[in-house]
């Protein structure tokens, strides 16, 4: 038996990085997975029966409804929402134009809110649910050149706590994860452009390495499992101790 055997999960940002790691781990632990991304998300492994993917831009107004409907049509349920897709644009405050701000909020926050809203009724009807939102250590600390990103991630904490307080009585938990630096599609190009950044990331925490997507996927799996049924409204830092030093 897998740890989330028979559960049905939506994973956003599943074509790359943390989301790909979460989709793969959830599948390995017995869940069915709808992998959502604007890029194609190929099936990890060979078990096609429990995997489906939907290519959609989460900033589109109808994205959440399309995702929830597809998951119900394909798997007949929604038990776990891994709200993970996000973008990170480094710009100083005065270089942050309206479009940059709006897109960060649309993808990092509004899309998460809409998916929480679109899936709540199905989870309530089943009396069980897990909502896990990807924030960042920037949900607790600011960082230069990341005004829009930091604001959006602080708001993910507020969104998650609000969802938790409303849905707790229905057997639904809502938590957010605060990753430190993770080797993914966001950080790999930055390291390629400036290889000294790898050392910076490796020493951000006290564990002396940057995270791999699997490190974050392990936390998603725990929060999705029955073992985490009494944990809600919580932010779990998976940062190798980076917040200790910030
Ligand atoms: N990598 C890090 O160091 C780090 C640290 C803290 C938090 N995070 C957060 O982790 C989450 C996942 O990022 P990652 O590091 O795996 O990056 P990534 O770029 O590897 O993956 C993000 C995925 O989200 C998808 N995506 C982005 N915008 C989308 C949209 N509008 N519609 C649909 N899909 C969209 C991308 O196509 C991509 O596949 C993000 O919320 C990010 O803010 C990352």
TrEMBL record:
Keywords recorded for this protein, A-Z: Oxidoreductase
Pfam families, alphabetized: adh_short_C2 (PF13561)
PANTHER family noted in UniProt: DEHYDROGENASES, SHORT CHAIN, OXIDOREDUCTASE UCPA
Family per record: Belongs to the short-chain dehydrogenases/reductases (SDR) family.
Record-given protein name: SDR family oxidoreductase
Organism expressing this protein natively: Novosphingobium mangrovi
């Amino acid at each position: 038996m897998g740890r989330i055997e028979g559960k049905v999960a939506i994973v956003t940002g599943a074509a790359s990085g943390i989301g790909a790691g979460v989709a793969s781990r959830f599948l390995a632990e017995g869940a069915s997975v709808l992998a959502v991304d604007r890029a194609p998300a190929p099936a990890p492994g060979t078990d096609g029966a429990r995997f489906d993917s939907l290519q959609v831009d989460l900033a589109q107004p109808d994205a959440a409804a399309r995702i929830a409907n597809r998951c119900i049509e394909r798997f007949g349920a929604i038990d776990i929402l891994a709200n993970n897709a996000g973008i990170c644009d480094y710009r100083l405050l005065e270089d942050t134009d309206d479009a940059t701000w709006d897109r960060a909020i649309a993808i990092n926050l509004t899309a998460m809110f809409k998916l929480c809203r679109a899936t709540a009724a199905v989870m309530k009807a089943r009396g069980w649910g897990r909502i896990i939102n990807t924030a960042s250590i920037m949900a607790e600390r600011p960082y230069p050149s990341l005004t829009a990103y930091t604001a959006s991630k602080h708001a993910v904490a507020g969104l998650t706590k609000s969802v938790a307080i409303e849905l707790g009585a229905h057997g639904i938990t809502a938590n957010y994860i605060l990753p430190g630096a993770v080797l993914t599609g966001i950080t790999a190009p930055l390291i390629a452009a400036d290889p000294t950044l790898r050392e910076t990331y490796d020493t951000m925490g006290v564990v002396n390495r940057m995270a791999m997507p699997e490190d974050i996927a392990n936390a998603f799996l725990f929060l999705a499992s029955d073992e985490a049924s009494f944990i809600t409204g919580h932010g779990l830092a998976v940062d190798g101790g980076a917040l200790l030093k910030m």
